[in-house]
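Forgive a beginner's question, but might I ask you for the amino acids of a protein and the tokens describing how it folds?
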Amino acid sequence: MNRKEFLKNTLFAFGFGNLFSTFPMFQSKLLAAEDEEFRLPSKVKSIIFIEMSGGMSHVDTLDPKPNGVFSTVPTKIKGVNFGEPFTQTAKHIHNLSLIRSTWSEEGDHGFGQFLLGTGYRMTEAMGFPDIPHMGSVIAYAKKGNEKGSYFPSYVTIGGRGGKSGQSGFLGIPYAGYHVGNLDEPIQHLNPSHGRYKEERLVRRKDLLSLMNAEFSEKFSSVEGKQWQSMLVAAEEFRSSKDIDAFRISLEDEKTRQRYGTTWQGKAMLLAKRLAIKEIPFIHINIGGWDTHDNNKAQITKIMKDTDQGIAALIEDLSGLGLLKQTIFVLSSEFGRTPVVGGRDGRDHYPKVWTSIVGGGPFSKGTVFGETDEFGNQILDPNTGVHVRDLVATLYQASGVDPTASLMNSFGRPFRLTTRKAKVRENLI
């Protein structure tokens, strides 16, 4: 046993494991992997992950069937149609690819979102309460060795279900920075209504630093160190030369109109700006897909506000050459029943649904997997892509070894994907 292993095991033997898990910023420096074995060569700088939260009906959208409730529109992929709600997106889908055979066993929202965010079923992760979202893992892989000022490496927009934004044992530096107000995404970093001048903010910061230093001399604690670190990070973020990436108001009027004035359109525009700045993981959560009732009306409402923005985002990623270094993903925690029930509703259906992937090393204009006439099941089981396979493939494509392990806050090696997960090499 070397010195490092001895000290680590001794600390945990005396019960420090619980202390470290309580304060992830402190423990991440001690326990996160220090080697490069889990990083793979990759040109990918960013992933834009659009999560259609609630369970999107595949037969009404990306895999239209006769039992769908919308008319169909052609895409630029030969022989491939979309449901009418994705009319604008259909014009640009040839830059990406479809997986019409995504599946899992999880018909519960929480369980399904957990799986989509981590690659682990809830029951498989029972021994790892501090498991990170894959966004944090990718942020850590891309930014873990960088020195310098803090700037978000994982950004969440919209809802925060499942493990969204949670960095687990990787610590606060790799947690999601959440954007609530897309018109003022960094409002809390600005002086209140312009009342305070920069000199006054500097005086306040210096006074607070002095008070913290005096307090720490008398009462040294992990909590105090953590709060001081967060204060420094906030100031570094506020002073960053890249902070304007969050200000979509700097885009010209024509571009903003092309994306749309809805929050979904603004979210897509912000995602483009963050991808230009090579933010490792950009997570957009669009809810409302739990259509047990009024399925057609609800999908119409969601996509009226969303389709335009997605289409503009794909168009710009392709036109600006960003798809070479940016992976685009759109998926849901499960699909919905092909048969419409009472009150125009569809229930949870994890047997099959459709995902969109593209950019980076992913192929363009291909369709992987096929369902039967009514979208009930995958025709060839060998083409089925379990959600854990999707996560493993995203890791591989973005430069993270999905079979590697990181040390968690309890001193246990955590494998990034389960041993059942398969990288789908035919997608990349």
Summary: The first helix runs from residue 3 to 13. Confidence is low (pLDDT under 50) at residues 11-35.
